[in-house]
Automatic annotation (TrEMBL):
<dbReference type="InterPro" id="IPR013216">
    <property type="entry name" value="Methyltransf_11"/>
</dbReference>
<protein>
    <submittedName>
        <fullName>Methyltransferase family protein</fullName>
    </submittedName>
</protein>
<dbReference type="GO" id="GO:0008757">
    <property type="term" value="F:S-adenosylmethionine-dependent methyltransferase activity"/>
</dbReference>
<keyword id="KW-0489">Methyltransferase</keyword>
<feature type="domain" description="Methyltransferase type 11">
    <location>
        <begin position="23"/>
        <end position="117"/>
    </location>
</feature>
<dbReference type="GO" id="GO:0032259">
    <property type="term" value="P:methylation"/>
</dbReference>
<keyword id="KW-0808">Transferase</keyword>
<dbReference type="InterPro" id="IPR029063">
    <property type="entry name" value="SAM-dependent_MTases_sf"/>
</dbReference>
<dbReference type="Pfam" id="PF08241">
    <property type="entry name" value="Methyltransf_11"/>
</dbReference>
Length: 246
């Protein structure tokens, strides 16, 4: 089970007999949107389709403009009226957002009172930079020359993603430049603070994520203390948590 499947299943399990209207914020190619609609859930998506990670060409033509909508990267205005959604999901999105407060305010606007948000993304403490596959690369200051050499050294040892046809140093320069421009890692305290300004009942469910991802090994997962499961997920994958609009 991947993150897309987890989100679809987690939301579908909470549907019950009620009608749910769901927004996937930063939907990419629309995997979660399509999965939810297959479950009979009224799901929509939006994305800025920015240059550093545009999936617009991968979106089904019949969905774009009808179910999945582009946003202006300068305003991040969600193209829906106030109080539209029962739930908003964002999967691996918030680490790309330069102004988290503005984005959360806009998400809050389109949620109904009592609606939930489900967020999956890494904070600064995660051990591996997941976009390029180099441990601790995001811990270095942006535009750090040492970071480029560090990543190139590990790439020469075989680490890193998307290295085909490039020397370790050229690959490292490109990847570090991409990280400088398109990622914004925050501390857990900063993330909690930003969400707490708009939402209540922030609850972490990393252990639930792990249980579903490893459900074929339930007995093994069950013997591991919850606190340790959360620690492992946060360090190896990232945060998984929910919050509610008052």
């Amino acid at each position: 089970m991947d993150n897309y499947e987890f989100c679809v299943r987690w939301i579908a399990e909470r549907k019950g007999g009620r009608k749910l209207t769901v927004l996937d914020y930063g939907c990419g190619a629309g995997q979660i949107v399509k999965g939810l609609r297959q479950q009979g859930i009224d799901a929509f998506g939006c994305d800025v389709f920015y240059d550093g990670g545009s999936y617009e060409s991968a979106v089904d033509r019949e969905l774009l403009g009808q179910v999945i909508f582009p946003m202006d990267a300068n305003t991040n205005v969600i193209p829906f009226p106030d109080g539209t959604f029962d739930l908003v999901v964002s999967n691996q999105v918030m680490e790309h957002v330069p102004d988290l407060d503005r984005v959360l305010a806009e998400i809050h606007r389109v949620m109904k009172p009592g609606a939930q948000v489900l967020s999956l993304f890494p904070d600064r403490s995660v051990w591996r930079e997941g976009h390029v596959g180099i441990p601790f690369l995001h811990w270095f200051p942006k535009r750090s020359a040492f970071r480029v050499h560090y990543a190139a050294t590990l790439a020469a040892l075989g680490l890193g993603y998307f290295r085909q046809g490039r020397s370790p140093m050229n690959w490292s320069r490109e990847m570090c430049s991409w990280l400088d421009q398109w990622t914004h890692y925050r501390t857990l305290d900063d993330i909690h603070g930003a969400f707490a300004r708009r939402f209540v009942a922030i609850g972490h469910i990393e252990e639930e994520w792990l249980g579903k991802r490893l459900e074929h090994r339930k007995s093994l997962v069950a013997i591991v203390p919850v606190a340790f499961r959360r620690f492992v997920v946060r360090k190896l994958a990232g945060l998984v948590f929910t919050a509610s609009k008052p």
